[in-house]
Structure formats: structure tokens, C-alpha cells
Amino acid sequence: MKAIWKDTVIAESDDTVVVENNHYFPASSLRKELFKPSQTHTTCGWKGVASYYDVVIGEAKNADAAWFYPEPMKGAEQVKDRVAFWKGVVVSK
Q1: What are the DSSP E strand ranges found in 1-89?
Q2: In the sheet that 35-44 helps form, which strands lie side by side, from edge to edge?
Q3: Exposed, middle or buried: residue 62 (CB in 10 Å: 0-12, 13-18, 19+)?
């Protein structure tokens, strides 16, 4: 699977986990230089507190386009150390 934004592959892996129709990529598969930590946090009732990354390519910034659960709740362990995408990031084979 590939995660693409602005015609740039930002993550690629054969080992994604699908939860609620989102592909969670291993954190190690991200092109780290394209991700900047965000101050945004949200809470999911069964996964826990999500943190976010902005995706930055050149001058373009996609705020909070990637999310992850640093300490997922019991029952959501499959998303630990994984990152999912939205806000125009295309995930495909």
C-alpha cells in the first residue's frame, strides 16, 4: 500500500492494518522528513487519544493529515506504532 499526497509517496508498506476502513501504516514506513508533529489531539471511545502530524511537501502543508495512537486502549493494540491518513491523502495499492 502507498499513501500519496501532492503526487508524492509519503508512506509505503506491505504490512498495513485496516481498522474502520483506514489503513494504518507502520510508523517505520513513513518518510519522516515530510511529517511535522501537530498540537492536535482527539479522543476515540475505544482506541484512546489520537495525536496528529502535519504533512509538509515543499511550501504545501496538509494540517493534521495523519494520526496515530501513542498509547492505544486495550482492544486497540493493533494500531500501536501505526499511522493512518485522511484530508486528501490517497491510500492505494
Answers
A1: 2-5, 8-12, 17-19, 22-26, 35-44, 48-57, 60-68, 82-85
A2: 17-19, 22-26, 82-85, 60-68, 48-57, 35-44
A3: buried
Separation CA 74–CA 68 (nearest Å) = 15
Of 21, 20, 25, 19, nearest to 3 by C-alpha is 25
Q: Is the pTM of this model over 0.85?
A: yes
Greatest Cα pair distance in the chain: 39
Tell me the pLDDT tens digit for each residue of 41-82.
999 999 999 999 999 999 999 999 999 999 999 999 999 999
Query: Which amino acid type is present at position 64?
Result: D
pLDDT at position 38 is 98
Q: Could you tell me the domains of the chain?
A: 2-92 (2.170.150.40)
